Amino acid sequence: MTAAVLSGKTLAQELRQSLKETVSSLAQNGVVPGLAVVLLGDDPASSSYVLGKERTCRELGMRSFDHHLSAATSQAELLSLISQLNANPDVHGILVQLPLPQHINAQEILQNINPDKDVDGFHPVSVGKMVLGEETFLPCTPFGILKLLEKAHVTLSGAEVVIVGRSNIVGKPLALLLMQQPYNATVTVCHTKTKDLAVHLRRADIIIAAAGRPHTVTAEMVKPGACVIDVGVNRIEDLTNPKGFRLIGDVDYDEVALLASAITPVPGGVGPMTITMLMYNTVLSACRRHGIAFPL
Ligand code: GUN
Questions:
Q1: CATH of 30-114, one of 1.10.3710.10, 3.20.20.190, 3.40.50.10860, 3.40.50.300
Q2: Which of 128, 126, 79, 130 is nearest to 100 (CA)?
């Protein structure tokens, strides 16, 4: 069997087209969805994600408010910026790029974002609502993965899903979503202290690799016919590439693709979906703020 390639890039383009149409109809009502992006420091991976978010905003006709600050910015300065953004009616979504420098208390920062503008879904109110199955902003990477699985008609109800990684951004929220209605999967979460990862993975109908470590999922750990979602984005040195590096996921793609039923590539899989769901949440936030029905 050779796996079907689940292209996040293609699905993201389709969704962005629909979002673009929604943005232009909002413009007829004088509403332009606005996203504030806050970045501290110049970590190359974070800078590249943030530039991608800002570029996509503009491509869709939205406004992007860019706040690229020094890594030495204090907790008080950052809290003051968050409070300005909360008060700005042109800002419908606030994204603070993680991780933040060591001296910043990230939880305090996230808790000060107005939940109505929490398009990342990281505020405790958003997380609580998500856990209870109430309507809220869903965190963008898990949301994008759900959209990809839905588009590929992967059966989730009763499926054995094994997630590798328990981060607050991906593993934990995805587990909480997949176990709930309407998905109804049976979910196992593996992490760095799991005794025998392979034993769990071999039972999985669906594998979600979100460990942030290359070669976490190798071919002998995968049941033939499983669906494999690779969330990893790892930079490895490649002197043949003008950038000096290339991106690989957490999964041994070439070997696993020979036995899986479906697999996401890296790049071009989950990554473009994350950015697209951020735009989706920001347009949704603008619609809610102005009492306009969100058509998607
Ligand atoms: N860092 C890695 N992924 C994310 C994300 O989805 N949102 C934010 N704010 N920071 C991140």
A1: 3.40.50.10860
A2: 79
